[in-house]
Amino acid sequence: MGEKEISQAVIRRMPRYYRYLGELLDAGVERISSNDLSRRMNVTASQIRQDLNNFGGFGQQGYGYNVKYLYEEIGKILGLDQTHNIIVIGAGNLGQALANYVKFEKFGFVIIGLFDINPVLEQKLVRGIRIYMLDELEAFCKENRVDIAALTLPKKKADAVANRLVDNGVHAIWNFAHVDLELLNKDVVVENVHLSDSLMQLSYNIVKNRDD
Ligand code: NAI
After folding, report:
1. What is the pLDDT of residues 143-170, one digit of tens each?
2. DSSP designation for 120
């Protein structure tokens, strides 16, 4: 691994494999054929084989996949075998909702602080996680390892805050603000999340089904 560039389309399918395998594991399933996995996931068996072959396979002819092994290996591919500390910038509705969601921790994503500029929120706790004022960001980043920053603040503020985060050593941004970030340092990974894009896609399919 590492030598070959894996396409983002393959990477985007990996969490879904991981989720299905996790469910199989919880249900006590020890091994599964690619045909069976394909039926459950509604993906062709050859797609599964092709996707996993990017990482060296993992299946055995006549045996299928060992569920626990494949789950763990995909977890490693996705970097879920390590903890990622997250801070949330913007402790409003969305920021607090993220902090309230406990299941991220199951995958090693730990929210260690929220930041805001509204003094009313200062020192408040969300599920035991403290809200800091933005002017405490520099000190916080010196004292804590911050792997990811989630941006849940107004879009007009997003660029400035994102660049400030990068200056403080944060090189991964989970961007919820509806803006394409303009980062001065290109050595940063950004994942944009737009729930409305997904809704619009749903809307398209509603309209399309109606017209068919
Ligand atoms: P909100 O108004 O409840 O919260 C925004 C928070 O950001 C407030 O507490 C505010 O004081 C704080 N803030 C403002 N400037 C700041 C700064 N410079 N530094 C730190 N904090 C700052 O808004 P809500 O509903 O939580 O939405 C937050 C953002 O997320 C908005 O940009 C919204 O458009 C976006 N959003 C994105 C979604 C998505 O799917 N990507 C879904 C919902 C909201």
Report:
1. 999 999 999 999 999 999 999 999 999 9
2. G
